[in-house]
Give the backbone structure.
Amino acid sequence: MPLAIVALILGGLVVVVLLWVAGAYNGLIRLRNQVENAWAQIDVQLKRRYDLIPNLVETVKGYAKHERETFERVTQARNMAMNAKGVAERAQAENVLTGALKSLFAVAEAYPELKANQNFLALQEELTSTENKIAFSRQFYNDSTMSYNTQTETFPTNFIANTFGFTRREFFEAKAETERAAPKVSF
Amino acid sequence: MWEQIQANRRRSLVLITGMAVVLVVLGYSAGAALFPGGGGIIGLGVALIIWGVQMAVYLTNAESLLLTGAFARELQRADCPRLFNIVEEMKLASGLPFLPRIHLIDDPAPNAFAIGSKPGNSAICVTTGLLHRLNRDELQGVIGHEIGHLKNDDVKFMTLAAVMLGSIVILSEIVWRTMRFGGRGRSRSDSRGGGQLQLILLVVALVFAILGPLMAQLLYFACSRKREYLADASCAQFTRYPEGLASALAKISQAGVPLSFASKATAAMFIVNPLPAASDEPTGLFATHPPTSERIRILRGMAGASLADYEAAYKRAHGGALIGPVSLQSAPTQSIRAPSDEGPIETRRDTKDLNYRARGYLRLRCNCGLEISVPEGYEQNSIRCIRCGSVLPIPAAQPAPSAAAPTTPLHYTRTGHSWESFRCACGRTVQISPAFAAPQVKCNGCGRMITIHQPT
């Protein structure tokens, strides 16, 4: 009789542990999907920026022919960012591109006719907002990565994470806090 | 952050269950007390029917009813790209899986609200008064607050709670009236045969009929206020800029224009209580919103932009805990970003034009300089200028000269590079934005594609 009770208790314990493992595993999967989805969102916005840049350069060229150096810098930065591999290198290249775009908008400041162009204004709004969207999706990616990493490294979920191969994710860091604070182009 | 939503959900479930218990007990005890012998089941049935009817009304597209009642018009991306961009930015910052639709209400009172909880029916409404008063950061704060409501599942929860509250109020009203008018006849018929159980049930029914609605209302309003604080906290976290929302709230509460279509039933939805009497009301137990001044004080007292910073500021201004330590553990620290230096989203004039476009008005400019707005549904092909008297043709898409089929492709040639409107063959107005560059435009009325020729 006592043997049966012991067996029952042990069986119950096993069931509880299995349930907890399943719950923890699903929680980790949910967090990892969220991180991956957040990364995809950043990618969408970065691609959108690459698509907008040639249009912008063409529009500005029509009014400001003598600023070849600035155009080249923007185009070069865009190509470098498009070919960057890995999270850290990508973040670095994107920061360079943000800086190059800033100088392009600064150049546009000197051409009043350009600033009155509807097409330029629409492009400017799109690019400014794309910069914001990159910043916000990066923010969400970093928040998600933070909670994912915390889950994989803290007791007791770290056992599950190690067993099933949930590895730590990199943050998408901006170079300096100031740059992250004001990524937008101002007018 | 995400744990907080789960904690919220758990608390909400407790509250809804509590209200359901009140409803059931009230129905059963009142039925049993008033109609001895099987009356309890009848009472229960009545309670459930009242609840079911109200729930059904809410489930069958209450969103579109509400939007129609508020004369809201859906905006298209081309109408106001900056507003759309701000909503998209906040969607990305919050990780909300869908983009809510955006509606415009023509009202000088600055206000906003979010409705719906599913991807298809959720919408954010803003008034024209809001758009020309707020700059980009402030509007971002308002949209962040509304997205916070959607993200925290507030809309779903408050709807459920409102249905429960309504059912309890109606049922207790019924019980009250039955006891007053039906009770006399009953007491004569069963002369002292009721027994003790009957008396107990009667007392329970009475207590629940008096206290039930009161307690339910107190709970409902307390929840509503708490959710406003939480949406503020979420907004600060999304935007990383609490000052944006703080200064928007200050502007909204100082505008002093009451919203024309708001009523007591809808007041809880808005970002700031839209009723004229509510603005100077102190922290009332029956208030839908916390006092705006206190919300501003908390937002301005934040040292960073994280939930923990909001919690700290809340403790300082108000005392007590809001979010709770469990969900704060995993919240990372976040610093506040620098303000953007962009001015108002739209000028008053832009907002007026935006509203006309959303409502399908044709805009014509007469040679004398007068701008004429022609409402949709005007059927003549020309209109007389009221200032100079010259007759202006209504611009319309023309069928291609050689085509003869019944659904001939339509053509329209632009006259310039500003906003332009013309009439489709189906009668609907089509608007073209200055940045429009595609070869074709789709008519919102009949869905056909109209070829656009750029000016030469």
